[in-house]
Amino acid sequence: MSIFTILLGGDLVATPRLARHVSGSRVIAADSGIRHAPALGLVPELWMGDFDSVSPEQRDGFAGIPVEVFPADKDKTDGELAIDTALSRGATRLVLAGAFGGPRADHAFLHLALALALAEQGVEILLSSGAQEGIPLLPGISHFDYPAGTLFSVIGFTDLDGLTLDGVKWPLAQRHVPFGSSLTLSNAARGPFTVELASGRAMLIAHVGEH
Prior knowledge:
alpha/beta
């Protein structure tokens, strides 16, 4: 498995759990996401973007990292360009660090949708802010090993059919969940748990804290 960490411009807390996720990975920084590299102890192999969110001082502080500059007027975000580059370099698993929060809610929503699209293409993917994690849910059974008490939500991007949650505080069995329903918000792990989905697309958001 070839693991790449993509450093994005959203919020990030450098936790031991996130450090384990990115350990041994290759790293590409997208624009202002470079600021997360020191906190995670990472040295990107490439820094790319239009650099409209980067100060001259930051450019000087990371002067030794290879840079690929794109025009501000382009058809993809800096994050998507970084992901494309990682895939072209053989990535089979992606950790999108800094995927949530920050000043651009539209970018955060894009990261969720893009993660689902990549998962459908067979790419294993994790979105993280350190304190929160996102994992795409596709039809089938997914297993999770979060500690008991971990708060999580299942956010549907479509209608969900045959949704089963087992090993959680509020289990479900073969439920239909309409798109936009809050039914699957704010559940909690009892320990290791499973999510089974017959059809639909969703994202599991887990609040893992700062451990």
